[in-house]
Amino acid sequence: MEPLFHLSIPVDDLDRAKAFYVDMLGCELGRKASSRFDIDFFGHHVVAHLAPAEASKVNGVIESDGDTAPLRHFGVILPLKEWKEMERRLTIRRVEFTLPPRLSFKGKPAEQHIMMLSDGCGNIVEFKSQSHERVFATDPP
Known about the structure:
Layout: E1 6-11, H1 14-24, E2 28-33, E3 36-41, E4 44-50, H2 52-55, E5 61-64, E6 67-70, E7 74-77, H3 80-92, E8 97-104, E9 112-118, E10 124-129, H4 132-135
Parallel strand pairs: 1-4, 7-10
Antiparallel strand pairs: 2-3, 3-4, 5-6, 8-9, 9-10
């Protein structure tokens, strides 16, 4: 069995979180209880826990290729074709991107397609497309 990544995230509204992850992104819903539910997030295990105080904590920003991006975020690296399909899916639904879809770090070792958006429940979700050899690439000295 391939290792699976596991992440627990706070959300301020379970129904809104389900609408985002299941209806908007197309993730599969797993186990659920009164205060949490599991998500098959592109083959990884994410658990959304109802924790409004945690979900509402202020999120800082970081510099990213001439722009800023939310500090606290998580996401998935997709093959370019799937990334473009997700970009189209989200654009058709007129989502408000935190970091609009773009090619970042063009011509550098970390070149990547990237976009970020809020789940509406206190979390930022990132979608990248980048070759595997570039994921941990560093700039030459």
